[in-house]
Amino acid sequence: MSAATGRVLDLFAGPGGWSEGLRALGLAEVGVEIDPAACATRAAAGHRTIRADVAAFPTAQLRGKVTGLIASPPCQTFSAAGLRAGNDDMDLCHQGLDDLARGNDTRPALRTACADPRSLLVVEPLRFALDLRPDWVALEEVPAVLPLFEHTARLLAGVGYSTWTGVLNAADFGLAQTRRRAFLIASRTRPALPPEPTHADGGTPADLFGDGLPTWRTMGDVLGCPPSEVITRGNHTTGGSRFPTTGPSWALTGRARSWRLRSGQGWKSGPGRSVGSTGRLERVIGEPSFTITGTANRCKWVGDGVEERNLTLGEAATLQSFPSDYPFLGSRTSQFQQIGNAVPPLLATAVLRPLVPAALEVAA
């Protein structure tokens, strides 16, 4: 494998969130992905892929060839939007990590014992890291997985890695989305540190040490108002309002600035969340979006309490910091799932930037 494409290995690579993050830093990787639609998307976007099951993939052929390791194990069993079977499997996952660190591969037996066999995929990054000893590692998952990442970090520290684990909010790094995800960062060549935020809720004031941080970006900031055919709707007392046929009209009228994005999920309210009378998550277009998930095709734009239309694929991609025309392939449902399950490229770039110099120095 060449230094440009073969030194970074991306497990559970999906459509290319980490790949796009690396591309912004002038690097490429080889992804391992089993889903055919995601593989087709990666090919269309120009990202190299090995179509394979990560859990069955042998590591011996890669020894001495991998500088950086990236992984985002499937999160469905741990996600708040799913059935949370991973909670029941947590002890088995901890056992799997300890067994791998002792050189004892008990994955087949543990997988059989799991309520959902996918839960055990969270131990795969440690298997690859211990076998390949890359210079750096970057892992991402839903916040519920943080205890397993902390366990993984302790085991990596035991073989010479500097590690950091924690939860990052995508809005702090320039996304118009308050997406919170757990990360593990590890390095054998330099201190592992979290990325420095580029934005803050409400912004921060300038001081002697800098200009301060701008406030979080909003859906309106990133979606804009694309040129389109305009229609007029109104009544005899309020007059007409002008709306584009392809996008929210917040930029055109006062009414439009009150448009909300409503989730199709019946999630309860929480910090930073706005919930309508139906109990469904809602955000005004002048706020960051809630977390874009694989069910984003159910999200609706709402104006004056009326559901106007669905969130488009391009809008979901943009909120996730992909280009709006990124070549997602597969069924419409699969395309939205790929978007919602991916690491946002902008966040990936922020996480990887402190690690990439180590990769470049070794590859030179």
Descriptive account of the structure:
This protein has 364 residues and is of the alpha/beta class. The protein folds into two domains: 224 residues, Vaccinia Virus protein VP39 (Rossmann fold, 3-Layer(aba) Sandwich), CATH 3.40.50; 108 residues, no CATH class. The chain has a seven-stranded mixed beta sheet with strand order 3-2-1-4-5-7-6, with helices on both faces. The chain has a five-stranded antiparallel beta sheet with strand order 11-12-10-13-14, with no helix packed on it. α4 packs parallel to α7. The longest helix is centred in the N-terminal third of the chain and has 17 residues. It starts with a helix and ends with a helix.
State the main characteristics.
globular, disordered C terminus, 5-stranded antiparallel beta sheet, Rossmann fold, alpha/beta, 12 helices, 29% helix, 364 residues
Q: SSE layout and pairings?
A:
Layout (H helix, E strand, L loop, with lengths): L2 H4 L1 E4 L5 H7 L6 E4 L2 H10 L2 E4 L16 E4 L13 H17 L5 H7 L10 H9 L3 E6 L4 H12 L4 E8 L10 E8 L31 H5 L6 E6 L3 E6 L15 E3 L11 E2 L5 E4 L15 E4 L2 E5 L2 H7 L12 H10 L3 H8 L3 H8 L1
Parallel strand pairs: 1-2, 1-4, 2-3, 4-5
Antiparallel strand pairs: 5-7, 6-7, 8-9, 10-12, 10-13, 11-12, 13-14
Helix pairs in contact: 2-11, 4-5, 4-7
